[in-house]
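Q: I'm writing up a methods section and want to include an example of the input and output format. Could you take the sequence below and give the corresponding predicted structure tokens, formatted cleanly so I can copy it straight into the document?
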Amino acid sequence: MNPRNAAAGAVRQLDSRITASRRLRFFAYASALPNRPAGHAFARRSIALGKLGFPVCKERDTVVGRRRAARVLRADRQAARKLPYDIDGVVYKVNRLDWQERLGFVSRAPRWAVAHKYPAEEQTTEVLGIDVQVGRTGALTPVAQLEAGVRRRRHGVERDAAQRGRDRAQGRARSATP
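A: Here is the clean output for your methods example:
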């Protein structure tokens, strides 16, 4: 339903070779450095991480006030569609690290950060088939073979030429269903 869930599922594999084959990248956004001076800013730390060679998100901003933050949220939502990667929302953080420390955490969530999540994208998924796996204890588990992101037209399923070629190579004829 969102990019973080997809990334978590991509790395949570029993076979480490499958995990290694995933094309995942990250942005560094924080570091644990002792002895912060009062008033030291979170934004400065992000810039410093970039100078050290870590990949940092260039689409970030430091704003003052709720109205400005709300405008940034609306603009970011439009800009998110043009990014070369997926995001599922925007996180607002208190910039001063000494204030972050003073605000602390509730359970595992920081009081100094607020997340605004975008609605999840939904796509049609086609069930290609269902296999049954036998576990080591003999338990039978149905496993669906899925194709996500199938775009439907009035007269059938739209597919790209490469997918049709893969289908033919695997001997799978697919019917176009309205």
